């Protein structure tokens, strides 16, 4: 994706510059902290000095090597931190402002207190680096398990988005609830969720040994909302209405294709439920 950046200076000869940087980037100066290497070639060509990218003052004052909140998951170098929007208001507001650079539809910036933020990081010898996050309401009457979800651009197409979605459903399973993302979904979000729901359903059907397939039982085992299950089955042409009932068709051709892709994909990046150390918060 590209944005059109218009310089603050009058420069009618050059006109607009096609850039991968949002046109409102310079409103948020501290964004430079997150991507100094990637932005340096663009910004130096616009007259910014190289020393701006060292962030020496910031590095001297900031001693944090990981997000605030509680680390509730760790497997290898991947961690997830639960951050309360009420207890860590400034951090969560800044996280939302950062997400706005990449999510045009995002409207929540400052009213973060009713939300919990689940921040995924990748660790190395310098600390924990932001991979992505999702937020969820502390008390959702519609059982939404995700309000907003973002994977940072440099981590896209590497399986992290699906890990975030899977983690949100893992929390729903621990809560013994059926979850669903808040609507409306963005185009990219809808594609990601449909892909996840497809994997979940085909995995379930591949392991299913019974005679009658129940949408209710699928929902209880996977924590996926029945509405999302039905829409996914319809898209796969695995749902048939017959004699007043909806029947789930176990299409072996689709299952075999899925198994072949899973074998080719290998282990990949997955969430290990055993690595979760979390109790559902109460009265937050």
Automatic annotation (TrEMBL):
<dbReference type="GO" id="GO:0036409">
    <property type="term" value="C:histone H3-K14 acetyltransferase complex"/>
</dbReference>
<feature type="active site" description="Proton donor/acceptor">
    <location>
        <position position="182"/>
    </location>
</feature>
<keyword id="KW-0012">Acyltransferase</keyword>
<keyword id="KW-0863">Zinc-finger</keyword>
<keyword id="KW-0539">Nucleus</keyword>
<dbReference type="GO" id="GO:0010485">
    <property type="term" value="F:histone H4 acetyltransferase activity"/>
</dbReference>
<keyword id="KW-0007">Acetylation</keyword>
<dbReference type="Pfam" id="PF01853">
    <property type="entry name" value="MOZ_SAS"/>
</dbReference>
<keyword id="KW-0808">Transferase</keyword>
<dbReference type="InterPro" id="IPR050603">
    <property type="entry name" value="MYST_HAT"/>
</dbReference>
<dbReference type="GO" id="GO:0003682">
    <property type="term" value="F:chromatin binding"/>
</dbReference>
<comment type="similarity">
    <text>Belongs to the MYST (SAS/MOZ) family.</text>
</comment>
<dbReference type="InterPro" id="IPR002717">
    <property type="entry name" value="HAT_MYST-type"/>
</dbReference>
<protein>
    <recommendedName>
        <fullName>Histone acetyltransferase</fullName>
        <ecNumber>2.3.1.48</ecNumber>
    </recommendedName>
</protein>
<keyword id="KW-0479">Metal-binding</keyword>
<dbReference type="GO" id="GO:0006357">
    <property type="term" value="P:regulation of transcription by RNA polymerase II"/>
</dbReference>
<dbReference type="GO" id="GO:0010484">
    <property type="term" value="F:histone H3 acetyltransferase activity"/>
</dbReference>
<dbReference type="InterPro" id="IPR036388">
    <property type="entry name" value="WH-like_DNA-bd_sf"/>
</dbReference>
<feature type="transmembrane region" description="Helical">
    <location>
        <begin position="24"/>
        <end position="48"/>
    </location>
</feature>
<feature type="domain" description="MYST-type HAT">
    <location>
        <begin position="1"/>
        <end position="280"/>
    </location>
</feature>
<keyword id="KW-0812">Transmembrane</keyword>
<keyword id="KW-0156">Chromatin regulator</keyword>
<keyword id="KW-1133">Transmembrane helix</keyword>
<dbReference type="GO" id="GO:0008270">
    <property type="term" value="F:zinc ion binding"/>
</dbReference>
<dbReference type="InterPro" id="IPR016181">
    <property type="entry name" value="Acyl_CoA_acyltransferase"/>
</dbReference>
<keyword id="KW-0862">Zinc</keyword>
<feature type="region of interest" description="Disordered">
    <location>
        <begin position="264"/>
        <end position="284"/>
    </location>
</feature>
<dbReference type="GO" id="GO:0003712">
    <property type="term" value="F:transcription coregulator activity"/>
</dbReference>
<keyword id="KW-0472">Membrane</keyword>
